[in-house]
């Protein structure tokens, strides 16, 4: 299963909370995230933290290519072997992030975003579909406050205006991953409130 949302939505917090809930029910659970711990993931993290800079013109496309390469590496090296061993694997971000972020950042005026969505889907054609994607919808101002509270330097995509456009992309997540099962959760409440909403929404999915 996959947890998604804008930066500071609480995906990492809630992925861990839900994993703890499943472990308490004696399920084998593995939490992972994108960018992965693999070699392409390490490269991506250096771009996100501005340790490496990409040429401006095709930045979104380069990021889409790197993320799709990282995703297939992550699946083969980490996720699929664990699924075969019977683990529930929770990924903090997946290809919905590529579709939301790279389609929102490609082209200054958003022109051609339909074409880039098609292209990103094609790049991710071999990526296993998740059982369910939990989209944590949070107001951009609330997410920004949380990011500030967390501290650290601003990452590549952490601009308020961009985050507002991303929040809109996530509200329409179903259009980006047609055919996937998507559950929206109101993430504006406290950590406990959001965790309760997720547990309730996912109880049917994990009763198997
Ligand atoms: N519901 C909540 N209410 C208040 N604070 C929260 C809530 N959820 C998370 N936080 C806090 O907000 C900060 C961001 O949360 P978290 O790291 O889980 O977000 P994220 O979606 O994983 O962000 P990123 O996409 O940047 O990794 C953390 O300091 C976390 O403790
Ligand atoms: Mg996170």
Automatic annotation (TrEMBL):
Thymidylate kinase-like domain ranges (all copies): 3-198
UniProt EC number: 2.7.4.9
Catalytic activity annotation: dTMP + ATP = dTDP + ADP
Record GO terms (molecular function): ATP binding; dTMP kinase activity
Family, as annotated: Belongs to the thymidylate kinase family.
HAMAP family given in the database record: Thymidylate_kinase
Protein name: Thymidylate kinase
């Amino acid at each position: 299963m996959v947890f998604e949302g804008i930066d500071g939505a609480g995906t990492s917090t809630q992925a861990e909370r839900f994993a703890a809930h499943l472990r308490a029910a004696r399920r084998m659970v593995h939490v992972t995230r994108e960018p992965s711990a693999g070699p392409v993931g390490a490269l991506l993290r250096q771009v996100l933290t501005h340790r490496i800079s990409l040429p401006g013109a095709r930045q979104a496309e380069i990021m889409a290519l790197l993320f799709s390469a990282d995703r297939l590496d992550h699946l083969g090296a980490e996720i699929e072997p664990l699924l075969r061993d019977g683990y529930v694997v929770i990924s903090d971000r997946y290809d919905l992030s590529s579709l939301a972020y790279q389609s929102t950042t490609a082209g200054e005026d958003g022109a051609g975003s339909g074409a880039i969505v098609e292209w990103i889907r094609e790049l991710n054609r071999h990526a296993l579909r998740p059982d369910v994607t939990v989209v944590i919808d949070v107001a951009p101002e609330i997410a920004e406050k949380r990011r500030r509270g967390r501290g650290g330097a601003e990452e590549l995509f952490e601009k308020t205006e961009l985050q507002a456009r991303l929040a809109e992309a996530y509200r329409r997540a179903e259009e980006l991953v047609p055919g996937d099962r998507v559950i929206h959760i109101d993430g504006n409440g406290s950590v406990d409130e959001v965790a309760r909403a997720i547990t309730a929404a996912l109880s049917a999915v994990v009763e198997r």
